[in-house]
Amino acid sequence: MGFSELLHTIGGMGNFQILQTALIMFPTILITCHNFLQNFTAMTPEHHCRPVNWTNGSQVPGGVRDGDLLRVFIPLDKDQKPERCLRFSEPHWQILNLNGTSSLNLDTEGCLDGWVYDQSVDSSIVSEWDLVCDHKSLKSIAQSIYMTGQLVGAIIFGIFSDRYGRKRVLQSATVQMIAVGLGAACAPGFPAYCAFRFLSGMAMTGIIVASLCLTMEWTPTQRRTLVNTYAMYMITLGQVILSGLAYFIRQWRWLQGTVSVTYVIILLYSWGLPESACWLVTHNKLDMAVKNLRAVARLNGRKEQGRKLTPEVVSFHMQEDTAAVKESPFFLDLFRTPGLCKVTCCIALGWFSAGFSFYGLALDLQKFGFNIYGVQMLFTVMDLPTKLLAGLSMGYFGRRITVVSLLLLASCMILVTTFVPQDMNTFQMILCLFGKGSLAGCFSCLYLYTMELFPTEIRQIGMSAGIFSTRLGSLLAPLIYILGSHSPVLQPVMFGLMPILAAIAASFLTETNNQPLLDTIQETEKRQGEGQRERERKREREIHTQRKGLELMTLTL
Question: Which stretches does the entry tag as region Disordered (predicted)?
């Protein structure tokens, strides 16, 4: 294609592309930190009701937190641990002389005076705002609100990026993230915290889709898989860094603020990044495109080739592309033609399913009953081999078969947990590890596959549609936790069935391995038509082969 030839002329995967690829580590790492931040800022420590008349710690008899004295104030649950949400309406000292309370019918009440939390666990939004018992669902709602922000951001920033450029969106979203992230760290109450997290989610989507598109549009066709794999590994590295930060920074406000202020790095280096020449050309901004192409050629050691580039030369290479591009793309352009509509629906279901099941497994690590920092690290390390295998598979077998295979594998792992007894926590965690790892590999495929399926004029909107879908799935995942408290089997069944539906949809997509990036909707429709005709010819050959086989069998008989 025209722009692919221009990239090859100015050095292909040269110094500039290598530098830009290296810099993408910052947005991918920080985005991951924000996505999984609530695993640590919303940890639920062990807790029980504040005993009757316990309004001041100095008035409590010594040792009331330990041993038998606590039984005077708090009933025991079936595991012989203090009830989290009930207390006796008055102290019962006679309990100290009994082996248990099962034979007693003692009056209990809710935690009218608040809760006492395990002091070995530092502050979290749960302990600060008492998001326990009747209010425990607010913890999941807070995460859903954050995901809703990503949902809205995918639409808004996707449209803005295709209209006003990738670089502007990257810078404006970064400024927003710094401001609202620090606002969340200083939030005076839970409603304000949720509002700031909503705005953080919006900014996060703008940063990731703009930075990935900006990088991929400067990357030659042959190197896109490698660059995409690198970006996915940086996401995994972000989870490792978050685990380390959370281990050393136990106060949730300091952890929230530290992760947010680091976005200054992205803001600083973004000023030196050139706008995507691919976007500039398809929007008839030829003078600026030539300027950026010459700058990149100079960095790649192709200064002489860069001097030969003029608006006329670039226009000659891209005349068909620029003539077919709409000046102001809109979200409905994703459904403008039958082929594009099929691509949008199938890829959106893939993103939705991956987000729904991935975050369903990754956002409730305390349920396994192990150290939260160790479990987070295990879930992170599992991503490394699956992303490597996904990258190799995409290169050798193609994008489509890789996505379908990983979705089916994840589905099997999750559904098997339905039949595992609740007390086999270790086996359940191993199955979830493989399921989450498969979905992480699927994400690395979807990021690349989506950018290759959509043309330049609506690529950002297409990416935003994918991000929108996955955030819709991740928004619903915490709500399944709330429903799962009433029906435990509902969680693995819901998280396991969705990848099967997505795998069926993905099987209808066109393969894009080693294919150039398309620039216009007309080119995309043409590719979809060729793919459809190829499938029809294949089906006809299979039918012809079957008929010949039947004829031979008839003659033999």
Answer: 524-545
